[in-house]
C-alpha cells in the first residue's frame, strides 16, 4: 500500500511540474521571478498627479546628450527638478556643475566634503575652505555622505558625530547647505544570511560584516546620526533611505518627533516598504511635513511611473520590473492629495528655497 501511495505521489508531482523546466528544490532564490495571477485592478500612471522634485539622484548622465535625454524623460513623467547628489569636490564637482548647469531650473548639484587629511591637524579648516569654494562654484547642498559602519567615505573610523565634524556641520548651517547622509543599511543586512531572513535576496548583496569589530552595529551607527542631528540643530540634515529604518519606521519617527532639523527621503526603499502599505500610509500621513520623494535609480520613465503607482494608487500584489530586489509583491499606498503634494514637491521646496 505504501508503495502505491508513493507511486501516486510521484505521478502527481510529475503532472504538477510538467510545464516547468525545474522543480522547487532547483529554483534559485536569485532567479525567482513570480508573476501575479490575481484578477484585480491594475493602474498605469503615465505622469505624476502633481509636480515632483526628486531629492535623491546621482550623476546618471555622462554627457550633454544624456542630460538632454534625462530632461525629456522628466517632462514625460512630470518631474520638475532633480537633485544631483554628486558627492564630489574640486575639479570633479566643477565638471558636474558645468554639465548640468545648462538646465538650471531642472537640476541642482550638491557637493561632498573633502576628507583629505581627516586624521591630521587643520582638517576642518581645509574642509571648510573647500565647502566655501564649492558653494561659490554653484553647489547648493552636500551629499550623499555615507557611513555604513566603518566611518565616512574616505575617512575610516570618523563617524558623522565625530568631534572633527562639528565645525564642518556648523559651517554648513552658516552657508545654508543642507546635508544628505546615508547611515548604515537596513536591518535585513545585519541579520544572519539564512532561511529565516525574509530579505535574503537583497540582504545578501548588501550584507554588513557584523563580526568585524571595526563595523558599528545597526543601532550604533544610527546613534551617530541622532547624535549629530542633536548637536547641530541649525543644520538641515536629510537621512536618505528612511535612515535605513524601513523595518522599524517608528525608530525614524521617534527622531523626527525630537529633531525639527531632521528630514528623510524614500530613495531606493520602495520595495522595502510596499509589503506594509497600511502602516506606511499612516506613517506618511503622520510625518507628511518631513518626508521627501527620491529615487536613487537610473532615470527611466517606467521607473518613475512605478514609484508613482506605489504612492498614488491602491493597487495590490504586483511585481514591478523596477524595485524588484526582493521576492515580495508591491502594494500601493493610495496617499491622499494633501500628503502627495508635500512629499512630491512641497517639503523639498522648503529646503532648497531657504538656502542662503
Can you characterise this structure?
The chain contains twelve helices and ten strands. 38% of the residues lie in helices and 12% in strands. Helix 4 runs parallel beside helix 5. A hairpin with a 2-residue loop joins strand 5 (151-152) and strand 6 (155-156). It is of the alpha/beta class and 356 residues long. The strands form three sheets. It has a five-stranded parallel sheet. Strands 1-2-3 form a three-stranded parallel sheet. A two-stranded antiparallel sheet has the order 5-6. The longest helix has 16 residues, at 337-352.
Averaged pLDDT: 93
Report helical residue fraction.
Answer: 25-40%
Q: In whole angstroms, how far apart are the ends?
A: 84 Å
The beta-strand count equals: 10
In this structure, how is the largest beta sheet organized? Answer: 5 strands, parallel
Q: Provide a count of the helices.
A: 12
Q: Compute the gyration radius: what is it?
A: 23 Å
Strand content: 5-15%
| Global structural class | alpha/beta
Query: SSE order in H/E notation?
Result: HEHEHEHEEEHEHHEHEHHEHH
Shape: globular
Low-confidence parts: 1-18
Strand order of the largest sheet: 4-7-8-9-10
Amino acid at each position: 500500500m505504501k508503495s502505491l501511495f508513493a507511486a501516486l505521489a510521484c505521478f502527481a508531482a510529475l503532472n504538477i511540474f510538467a510545464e516547468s523546466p525545474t522543480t522547487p528544490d532547483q529554483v534559485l532564490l536569485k532567479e525567482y521571478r513570480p508573476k501575479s495571477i490575481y484578477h484585480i485592478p491594475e493602474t498605469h500612471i503615465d505622469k505624476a498627479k502633481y509636480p515632483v522634485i526628486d531629492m535623491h539622484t546621482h550623476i546618471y548622465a555622462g554627457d550633454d546628450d544624456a542630460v538632454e535625454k534625462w530632461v525629456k524623460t522628466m517632462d514625460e513623467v512630470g518631474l520638475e527638478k532633480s537633485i544631483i547628489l554628486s558627492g564630489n569636490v574640486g575639479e570633479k564637482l566643477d565638471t558636474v556643475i558645468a554639465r548640468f548647469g545648462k538646465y538650471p531650473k531642472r537640476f541642482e548639484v550638491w557637493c561632498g566634503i573633502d576628507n583629505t587629511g581627516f586624521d591630521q591637524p587643520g582638517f576642518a579648516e581645509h574642509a571648510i575652505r573647500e565647502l566655501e569654494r564649492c558653494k561659490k562654484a554653484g553647489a547648493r547642498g552636500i551629499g550623499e555622505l555615507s557611513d555604513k559602519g566603518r566611518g565616512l567615505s574616505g575617512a575610516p573610523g570618523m563617524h558623522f558625530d565625530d568631534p572633527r565634524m562639528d565645525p564642518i556641520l556648523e559651517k554648513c548651517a552658516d552657508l545654508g547647505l543642507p546635508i544628505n547622509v546615508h547611515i548604515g543599511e537596513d536591518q535585513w543586512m545585519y541579520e544572519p544570511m539564512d532561511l529565516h531572513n525574509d530579505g535574503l535576496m537583497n540582504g545578501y548583496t548588501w550584507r554588513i560584516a557584523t563580526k568585524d569589530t571595526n563595523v558599528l552595529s545597526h543601532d550604533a551607527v544610527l546613534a551617530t546620526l541622532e547624535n549629530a542631528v542633536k548637536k547641530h540643530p541649525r543644520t538641515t540634515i536629510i537621512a536618505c533611505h528612511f535612515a535605513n529604518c524601513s523595518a522599524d519606521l517608528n525608530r525614524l519617527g521617534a527622531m523626527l518627533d525630537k529633531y525639527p532639523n531632521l528630514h528623510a527621503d524614500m530613495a531606493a526603499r520602495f520595495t522595502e516598504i510596499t509589503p506594509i502599505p497600511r502602516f506606511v500610509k499612516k506613517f506618511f500621513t503622520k510625518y507628511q511635513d518631513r518626508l521627501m520623494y527620491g529615487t536613487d535609480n537610473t532615470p527611466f520613465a517606467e521607473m518613475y511611473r512605478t514609484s508613482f503607482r506605489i504612492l498614488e494608487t491602491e493597487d495590490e500584489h504586483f511585481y514591478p520590473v523596477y524595485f524588484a530586489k526582493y521576492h515580495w509583491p508591491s502594494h500601493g499606498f493610495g496617499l491622499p492629495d494633501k500628503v502627495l503634494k508635500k512629499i512630491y514637491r512641497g517639503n523639498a521646496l522648503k529646503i532648497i528655497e531657504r538656502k542662503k
